[in-house]
Specification:
The structure holds 2 protein chains of 2 kinds. Chain A is α/β, with parallel strands linked by helices. Chain A folds into 2 domains: 5-104 and 231-269, Periplasmic binding protein-like II (D-Maltodextrin-Binding Protein, domain 2), CATH 3.40.190; 105-229, D-Maltodextrin-Binding Protein, domain 2 (3-Layer(aba) Sandwich). Helices cover 37% and strands 23% of the residues of chain A. In chain A, strands 1, 2, 3, 4, 6, 7, 8, 9, 11 and 12 form a 10-stranded mixed sheet that branches. A two-stranded parallel ribbon of chain A has the order 5-10. In chain A, helix 3 links the parallel strand 1 (31-36) and strand 2 (59-64). Chain A is elongated. Chain B has a two-stranded antiparallel sheet. In chain B, helix 8 (181-189) runs antiparallel to helix 9 and helix 12 (248-256) runs antiparallel to helix 13. Classes of the chains: A alpha/beta, B mainly alpha. At the A-B interface, strand 7 and helix 8 of A face helix 6 and helix 12 of B.
Chain lengths: 271, 295
Amino acid sequence: MKKIMMIVLAAITAATMLAGCAADNGSAGGSVSTDGSTSMEKVIGALGESFMANNQGTTFTYNPTGSGSGIKAVLEGRCDIGLSSRSLKDDEKSEGLNETVLAYDGIAIIVNPENPVNDLDLETIAKLYTGEITNWKGVGGSDAEVVLIGREAGSGTRDGFESITGTADKCQYRQELTSTGDVITTVSQNPNAIGYASLASLKDSVKALTVGGVAPTEDTVKDGSYVVQRPFVLVTKDGEALSETAQKFYDYATSADAADIIAKAGAVAAN
Amino acid sequence: MKQNKKHTAKPIEAIVHGVFLVAGLITVGCVLLITVYLIISGLPAIKEIGLIPFLFGKVWASTAKTTEPSFGILPFILTSVYGTCGAIVLGVPVGFMASVYIAKLAPKKLKAVMQSAVSLLAGIPSVVYGLVGMLVLVPGIRKLFNVPDGASLLAAIVVLAIMILPSIIKVSVTALEAVPKEYEDASLALGATEVETHFKVSVPAARSGIAAAVVLGVGRAIGEAMAVMMVSGNAANMPGLFESVRFLTTAVASEMSYSGGLQRQALFSIALVLFVFIMLINAALNFFLKRDKEA
């Protein structure tokens, strides 16, 4: 459904483009185009929907191409706002791009409440997931095989977890489940399981590990001390004014009003 | 000729006839549409990957970033075949004996209770089977066999075996009840006991129907997605009884929502392979049913 909607939205954008600049100056309509990170699909999709609902006649488009392509698209003026699920690199900033952190994607590492392990560091988590450590004994737990629970290929949470821990394509998953809820249920059922879930959907039936001694909370994610996280960034061009509608969307997305929507989409709002 | 005249004489009759025809065409049209759509969307990926590497490749890494993505579905095909066979091995003996009991041996009241229980079992949504499997069966297997994780081919087989019971029992009971009473009376008159009669006369007489029931069970097992997705673990491993496995159905279902490009096309190709399997099973079913009618 989402894909179909995107195609429709893309078609609408194309149509408005053909219609020319008239639409930009028009008072009623106007459009915002975003391009970039596929991981931000949920957050940006929810924001776009509510923005369109609040501003009748405006169109919002999102082109899921990946962070790199999104940054490039802003630079080349192919979209209003770029979306990136990593901070901009210095050379990207020097090319005249600005970043505004929209939200943080905090990922909690969860184990069964019976598991005696309470804390792991990032490196150990990576070692567990790549199969370098296969027994809980190796990290101070009981003598039992580690059962790795993850998400399906293409999931934003999986992409986030693997890119933060540097384990892309190397995870030896025992189970690949299709929802955060399934991951939490499975971990709560198996004393030797470890899994990951977005911070917003944590439940009491599992224990969230501290990573390097820092517990995952909204505050530690915001101040950056909890390391299993990444920013969701809005990328704009330095010194170039956004179109009226794009500015309106930018203001809306970074306002406190949007925080609820962002939280519902599973991320921690920055503002 | 006479009938034709009748039609023209009653225009309402003709209209109703047309309505039924349209309803029938809708069904046929849906099947055709799905078939054509699957073939059109399933072939490009097979062409790009190559039929042999696609069907016999052992590695599925559709979203690999650091390495070249690979699209081999042999693990899924074997898992679906093993899983279905396992479900048949467990489910058919139970279903068969249950249907003999219901059709021939059970007292009237018990028969009514058992039949409504079977109908109820057929009506339970597959997600409920999956949920119960996830919360009861998976931890149970983990403890019983002392394996690190219970989500495995075995769990899927057990869930599937239970799920195919209603189809097997219902069709078998119908077949057994259709055996002419004279056959059984003759056998009893010759001095055979009741049980001998059922197994040596009634069951052989109903064998085509029972075979159709088994094939129907196979079709149900191979097409099930939701319940097995929740208990089988979904890792793309080659099948092993206690291994986390992915079926053809779950391969499509689990990755479809976020997929794109060649990965998405390959998922359609998997659906096409599954479709071919189901077509073969349907052909087998038709064969048995036809033989049943002729017999």
